[in-house]
Amino acid sequence: MTLNLCGIDEAGRGPIAGDLVVAGCILNSHVDGLNDSKKLNEKKREALYEIIIKNSSYHIVKFSAKEIDDNGISICMKKALLEIMKNLTCKEYLFDGNTNFGINNLPTMIKADGKIPEVSAASILAKVTHDRNIINDAKKYPQYQFQKHKGYGTALHVEMIKKYGYCEIHRKSYKLKALNTLVTPTLF
User: Fold this and answer.
1) What domain range is 145 assigned to?
2) Secondary structure of residue 28 in the 3-state scheme
3) In degrees rounded to 5, what are phi and psi of residue 119?
4) Residue 131 counted as an annotated binding residue
């Protein structure tokens, strides 16, 4: 844990459905068991989420599929990063990945979510928030089985789109080769 460091990470940049979630986190005390959220099972992520919330200052930003379609993923990412930096005052910021989306004073580090505790914590906050949202969406749109694929373009998800068309939480600006010849109605 580094004092005065805000770790930032996202979840949901790649899926074809659901929210983009970006989290910033400043740890106020040490939290055991932190790691890249993708390397932790769901039960461990959920438990750590509650511990992180109690032991940090954090800010979470979400963009809907419609906002992503209307603005583009890069604009949404930049807006989220700037909002986090505005709401979490810190000496240093570190974003997981290799691009800072044009924000000059935002350093990046590839795989920081597995190396730097503050970024690991942000990774967990973002992933748990994303997954909770899409599991909630699965109740509204059960035919898509979002709880199984979390919005990613798996074979099951593509089959459900072929069968039912797109729903409100699908990112229509994301093109899938498997759907190139498909003309489907939207459900909203």
Assistant:
1) 141-179
2) coil
3) -75, -40
4) no
- The response to whether 32 counts as a known ligand-binding position is no
**Number of Cβ within a 10 Å radius of residue 159:** 13
What tens digit of pLDDT does each residue of 157-188 get? 999 999 999 999 999 998 887 776 443 444 44
In this predicted model, what pLDDT tens digit does every residue of 92-146 receive, in sequence order? 999 999 999 999 999 999 999 999 999 999 999 999 999 999 999 999 999 999 9
> Regarding beta strands 92-96 and 5-11, do their DSSP bridges make them parallel or antiparallel, or are they unpaired?
parallel
Is 137 part of any known ligand binding site?
no
* Residue 175 within a domain: yes
Overall pTM > 0.90: yes
Are residues 169 and 81 part of one domain?
A: no
3-state secondary structure of 73: helix
